[in-house]
Design a protein that fits this description.
about 600 residues; alpha/beta; 8-stranded parallel barrel; 3-stranded antiparallel β-sheet; 17 strands
Length: about 600
């Protein structure tokens, strides 16, 4: 069921977010049937109340630019064609009872990965920003006003952090945070001045859109940050005096900031200390405006998997103001489960999620700027301790004056907007933390018994007495292990055929079975091979065993091997016929590696253990 904030609507929506990226409106490819089908599916199948679409995107088709990168028009096809398609889009959304969230730009405007010229200069240059506002944004707001688009929300830019130095710039062109803040603040002020629409920004994550007292690292889009960037650029004074449009009857207002926050949620944020809706309640982030997750996957896959119903339940129960699933045209995020989830959530929160509730909230006036703090009253003058001097008796006493009447004057005007805030330069960058000290190389495994003893001796002075005793016991256990291994390495054969020591080590041992023995065991530093005789009254007298060492890819030199001679200790116990089968004088040697002569192979376990 979730917990809803009283008086706020619940956003339940979907992202289109485009049919043809950057060309849908004013680019010559407007498909009315496609958008009608999208709106019908979102509204009737999912009972959604909002839909999000991209407009200019990266600037590949609209608006119209000159050779210097300035905006000279809203579309190459002309303002009339653009307005016709935009009006059709607005009416389709109204027909299906959907709030239309128009995202003007995306971080793709700072990149050229799609083969189009980056438009980051609009953000960097105040003059180019003014050209966009004057020749594209203000005309766009006029078109929406004439279309009665009171069901529309303006989003200035999608995920601006991805082209900011101070966040995690991932585009070819990067801008500074103050430049992006000035660009966004200028657009926000124009929307509030020349329309009655509300405006937001699609932040990439709560990581950059919450006070630093929480787990966030920045609050780039707060009123304080945007106001500082707006007035520092001089726009607050100039635009407040002249405006951008031709209609001088509109009185520019004081800067008021965003009307709500949009943040996005993707799998990389889903962890215990992450930035998703399932980690912390909205109150933990200390956010001062309604906050909507405007991009959210229909299914979360990764180290933590969640269904669309689980994610939306986290959003609602954590006190956020809704979510918009991604995306209608993305095969990687199928919308079938998300539409079912939206339908159920809409039925559970019928009043808060209705189109009428959300539409009423959009039409309500945005709050006025805060008034300056009231000054404390001035202290009254002290009463004099003595009375005034008496009047001489020869003079008549003057009549008492009438009590003072309040002057008949109009009430004082409301205080004006606060003066521009002085520019506070950003703090200097902090020095990076010192690098941690380099750790010494590991002491194990030793390459030879001598190096092992040297390492232990050099480490002894740094340890306490108890550690010293443990070290000595370790040395004793190592010596016992070596001794046991030498004992276990002794095997007896009648005759042995050994491969060359310069070839991959393959030993074929022809073992003669003793009458008393029932098992022959060959032990080597990394394997243990056994040959078992068949249970029979007349077992075979010769058993052939193939021993393949595990590290066959490395050729070993003769110096790395230790030769041992093998005898037939059971030759006298066998019968004559069997003994004649073998050449007792041909005693060969089989190579066995020493314990510390070379690194141990992966997965090695000593036989003594």
């Amino acid at each position: 069921t979730g917990v809803m904030t009283a008086g706020r609507p619940l956003w339940l929506g979907v992202n289109a977010p485009w049919n043809r990226f950057g060309y849908d409106i004013g680019g010559g490819t407007f498909d009315q049937a496609w958008f009608d089908q999208f709106f019908r599916t979102a509204s009737h199948t999912g009972r959604a109340n909002s839909a999000r679409l991209f407009l200019f995107a990266d600037g590949r088709a609209t608006p119209q630019f000159d050779s210097n990168g300035g905006v000279i028009g809203i579309s190459k096809l002309g303002a009339a064609a653009f307005e016709k398609e935009l009006g059709t889009l607005v009416r389709l959304a109204q027909k299906h009872s959907l709030v239309l969230q128009l995202c003007l730009w995306s971080f793709d405007m700072c990149d050229d990965s799609h083969g189009f010229q980056p438009r980051s200069a609009l953000i960097e240059s105040p003059e180019l920003t003014d050209s966009f506002v004057k020749n594209a944004l203000v005309p766009l707001l006029g078109m929406l006003e004439r279309a009665d688009a009171d069901n529309t929300l303006i989003e200035v830019i999608n995920e601006p952090e991805w082209c900011m130095y101070e966040a995690q710039c991932q585009t070819k062109r990067c801008v500074h945070a103050e430049q992006m803040q000035r660009f966004i603040a200028t657009c926000v002020h124009a929307v509030h001045t020349y329309s009655r629409l509300k405006v937001t920004v699609g932040s990439a994550s709560l990581k950059w859109n919450a006070p630093s007292s929480s787990r966030a690292v920045a609050h780039f889009w707060s009123d304080q940050e945007l106001k500082r960037a707006f007035y520092h650029a001089g726009d607050g004074i100039d635009r407040g005096r002249t405006g951008w449009g031709a209609d001088k009857s509109l009185v520019p207002i004081a800067f008021t900031g965003l009307d709500l926050y949009n943040v996005h949620f993707w799998p990389w944020m889903e962890r215990k200390d992450g930035y998703g809706p399932c980690q912390n309640h909205a109150s933990y982030w200390k956010i001062d405006k309604p906050t909507v997750f405007a991009e959210m996957p229909a299914v979360l896959k990764g180290s933590i998997s969640r269904s669309s119903s689980e994610i939306l339940e986290c959003v609602i129960s954590s006190g956020f103001d809704g979510a918009l699933f991604w995306a209608f045209n993305d095969p990687g995020n199928p919308m079938s489960d998300a539409l079912t989830t939206l339908n159920k959530a809409s039925a559970q929160h019928l009043d808060a999620s209705s189109y009428q509730t959300l539409h009423h909230w959009l039409r309500s006036p945005f709050p006025p700027p805060p008034l300056p703090p009231t000054l404390p009253p001035l202290p009254l003058p002290p009463i004099p301790p003595n009375h005034p001097p008496p009047v001489p008796p020869s003079l008549p006493l003057p009549p008492s004056p009438p009590p003072p009447q309040p002057p008949d004057r109009p009430p004082p005007p409301c205080p004006q907007a606060p003066p521009p805030l002085p520019y506070m330069p950003p703090p200097p960058p902090r020095d990076p933390p010192p690098s941690p000290p380099m750790l010494p190389p590991p002491l194990w495994p030793p390459q030879s018994p001598d190096s092992f003893l040297v390492i232990m001796a050099s480490a002894l002075p740094n340890y306490t007495s108890s550690t010293l005793i443990l070290g000595l016991l370790s040395c004793l256990l190592a010596a016992i292990s070596v001794a046991c291994w030498q004992c276990l390495s002794r095997v007896t054969f009648n005759s042995v055929i050994a491969a060359s020591v310069d070839e991959p080590v393959t030993t074929i041992a022809r073992l003669r079975r003793s009458k008393k023995a029932s098992r022959f065991t060959i032990r080597c530093p990394w394997r243990q091979y056994s040959s078992y005789s068949a249970e029979s009254d007349t077992p075979p007298t010769v058993k052939t065993v193939k021993v393949l060492h595990s590290e066959a890819s490395r050729k070993l030199s003769a110096a790395e091997w230790q030769r041992i001679s093998l005898k037939d200790d059971e030759a006298d116990e066998g019968d004559g016929a069997d003994a004649s089968d073998e050449d007792e004088s041909s005693t060969l040697s089989v190579p066995l590696p020493t314990l510390f002569s070379r690194p141990r192979p992966p997965g090695f376990q000593h036989p003594s253990r």
